[in-house]
Amino acid sequence: MKLSRVLYRQHIGFMFKKHWLVQGSRVPIDTGVEKYLKEKGIKVEDALEFIKEEPRTFDRISVIGAYEPPLPLNENHPEYKERPCLTLKSTNVLLEGINQAQVLTKTIIAEDQLPRRIEELAELPAPKAIHEGVKKAILSANVFDTEQKKLPKKKDKERPAYNFPRILGITDRRRNEILTNRLIQLIEKSSDIDITQNKYVINNVEHRSVFDKEEELIQFQDVSNILVTSNKPLKHDLDTSDVPFIEIPDLFPVKHTVTLPPEHFYEEKSRYPILPSVLKKYPHTTWLHFNETEVNNIYETPVTPAQILGRSLTHAFTEDVKDLHEPIHLNCIQTDGKRFHFGVFELNTLNVDGNDGTKNIWYCKNDQILYDSSRYFSGMPSLDNYNPKVYGYINAFYNC
Amino acid sequence: MLASSGQRMIPKLKSFTIRRFTQPAISEQNEYTDVPNYPPILDTSLQGRKQRKRETLYENIKALKTVEEKQIALNMPRYYGWPCIMFKENSVPYNAMPFVQYYTKTYFKSIHKLPDTYNNTSTLTDTVLKDVKSHIEDCIAFENIGIERKIEICSDLRVEQQMEDLKTKEIVKQINRIIMNNITDKVPHILSTQVDYEPRHEAFWFMGGGAVPRKVINWRKQYPWLRKDRLNEAFDKPVQYIGSPMLTLRNNLPLRPIIPYNEAENPEFKVNEFEYVPESVGYVLEHRYGTNIPGFWPGDQDEFGLLSYHGRGHIINRKESFGAEDNLEALHCQAIKSSFGWLLAQANYQGFTTYNDITYPLTTQTVITNGQLLSFYVYQLNTITMNIDAVNTNPKHNICYGTKPMELYETIEDGKVKGLNEDTLKMLIQFYVNAPVERDHELKPYLGDEEQVVADIEEDERRNWLEATYKHIVSNRPKHVLMPEIYLWEKIYKIQHNTRFFEAKKRPFELGINPFKRRLDEHLPPYIPKVLRPYPKCRKKFETMYYPKI
């Protein structure tokens, strides 16, 4: 409640103001004390003599607070570098999507093609109980979870100023976390114990790779929402003959570093979160979530499907940072909770200058849809058109 | 003018017409019986009438068919929600044990090893222990020193508390993963068990015991009919539990009870009454709707909890002067609160409420940990009614068995875990191996046969309305129009000192109205705009509301 409202009602403030004015202009009455004291020989001093001095000033105390404040971002910051680093974070996307990612990572693409062993494993039928479990996981993530948080604002194109009541529900971050973790749990439960014992499943780890391309420093900062590691490096038998590759495109007039904002505060070394002393340190499969509310273009335009695919490629590239003696392989799965993009990255070179010489290869199978819709439809939980094939691929990625 | 009044008169004429045919009352054949059949003698005193009114409410809620309707019904008497005593999982005031025990009617028993029902799986436990031991050592070392994580710290909690809870969360996930993967093919129930990360647990109940607050007594003093002999009359205090475990397991079958159900009436388990007012020992009141949520919406098949892991970071946040003994009691309190809260919410999904007691016991297992120290609790829920009609007459009590915090390992040296405590790990595995079993009695006696949740209702409009209303109530979203309030200036210048006697009396407290005494359905139904009404002619201006009739 506003205080003024009370004052207006009572007018007591006005009374006080008036009172101060009246009392302030009072004329002191001569009581005759001074004269009497002088007669007695007592010295009388003027009261104004005592308040002549300027009031003492105090230094301001700097309050530290409950937490140490972060260092100011200026030239004195320990991580400050003169040379800007063009940074791609997990919340940003490349303007040209998959094409730009190809140029940045010097990669050729084998579209709709996965290693033969994965295709073979994906064909194996899973028991009915497992598919029931997948359905349960989908329903849990979309329907039965009790999170009630604000979802993005609903807008009507016809009348953009109209405010709809805000909808509360399961956020995309939570939905993806539940779905992917449940799927991994199901796969591990149905896999052989020897396979699961040689693997780690870690949630939300950050890693970054810094590299030079054509005299510009580029950095990919990424978060792996689920990272499966194993005790030996992942190997795929790949036959590159008679595979129709998509060659590295020419982006002209766009430069390949467009929409990578320059940053002056960074570490010069690439970083992989698991220490080299750990036995199960080799990355095997990395899961990437596409959360619509968190990933944006820096120019505020909606994210396009090609840009989403570009994320998978740069993400897989980030994960592979090591000295190269032989090709390194890595599985990558990106999902927005419904659509799954599978990819296998083969890192052949870390020299990404130019378009010639050895190139990295990206085998991918995109847009696999796990289900059409799952929600409360007219007050009833619903799951439409469950696609059992997708589970086969996820299982194959884990077990290969 | 005349014409219009003439039209109006026509319907009235109907009432003046003489009824030509009358029906004689059907004389009953068996009007007379050998033994006089008197109606029951009802207690006509005020207390008796009030109790009968309450009992009809209990019966009406029991008769409702779906879970969601029962939950809405619990909130029907209050438009602005209940002033609930808040039980938060992560804050335990000093010396909270007597209060928590009385408000959950729980007898606590300190134990060193798990109850005897766990012994029949010891051979299986030993084989599992041998298999997982080295892997658990590895994962603990890995989580502690083998990985660099990016830690996001928020500013409203202590940094140490957040760091500990974050690390614990990851260790718990790893331990759970290793044990689950190992025993999937040894114990059949694990495959169908669902694992939830950080679910939402809420529970709501009424407590009829304890002292009457001074504020209520003062309020009662102003009315002569209350002042006389009803100053200390007990009333139902709403209590709300809110918590979020790190990880829970749930299954479609309930766990076996630890002690037989009739043992629950054993007078040994009686807990002492806590006579003080909750606000005076560090609890706060919050106006909100009562909610019962065990981590999923009604309709999910896996509705019985097996195991829940909780963090103990809040212990760091307690004052040092509380001492080690009180910290231990705080852990027990956390376990009692969270186990009772989760089981009560599960019981609500089986159709029981705080007014209609459960007909069979429910059990859960709770682990409180910081990654190194683990304390184990087994909780059996025997009763959930403790309202004013039941608090003194209901002989049943709930039982919680709990251990002290036990070390899982001693230290981590050179990247290896030293001194893994096998007994601790064994207890944890025993919790996983403890299989739920099918019960030989009905689980949902107070729910409908066809309709058990709102999704089963066939009438489209009613189902949609109930679904939307239920979600709206349990979300506890802020109201568009603020709650009524007595402003401070009004309290000073109008209530405490009558300085504005010349003004028109318009505010509720001047008219003798209690604005909080408003039922949930006391509002105008949503208006149907004319264009949306069915063609050609429809006089229905407002939408139908399907609030449960209680």
TrEMBL record, chain A:
<protein>
    <recommendedName>
        <fullName>39S ribosomal protein L37, mitochondrial</fullName>
    </recommendedName>
</protein>
<dbReference type="InterPro" id="IPR052482">
    <property type="entry name" value="mtLSU_mL37"/>
</dbReference>
<dbReference type="GO" id="GO:0005739">
    <property type="term" value="C:mitochondrion"/>
</dbReference>
UniProtKB/TrEMBL annotation, chain B:
<dbReference type="GO" id="GO:0005762">
    <property type="term" value="C:mitochondrial large ribosomal subunit"/>
</dbReference>
<keyword id="KW-0687">Ribonucleoprotein</keyword>
<keyword id="KW-0496">Mitochondrion</keyword>
<dbReference type="GO" id="GO:0003735">
    <property type="term" value="F:structural constituent of ribosome"/>
</dbReference>
<dbReference type="InterPro" id="IPR039982">
    <property type="entry name" value="Ribosomal_mL65"/>
</dbReference>
<dbReference type="InterPro" id="IPR010793">
    <property type="entry name" value="Ribosomal_mL37/mL65"/>
</dbReference>
<protein>
    <recommendedName>
        <fullName>28S ribosomal protein S30, mitochondrial</fullName>
    </recommendedName>
</protein>
<dbReference type="Pfam" id="PF07147">
    <property type="entry name" value="PDCD9"/>
</dbReference>
<keyword id="KW-0689">Ribosomal protein</keyword>
<dbReference type="GO" id="GO:0006412">
    <property type="term" value="P:translation"/>
</dbReference>
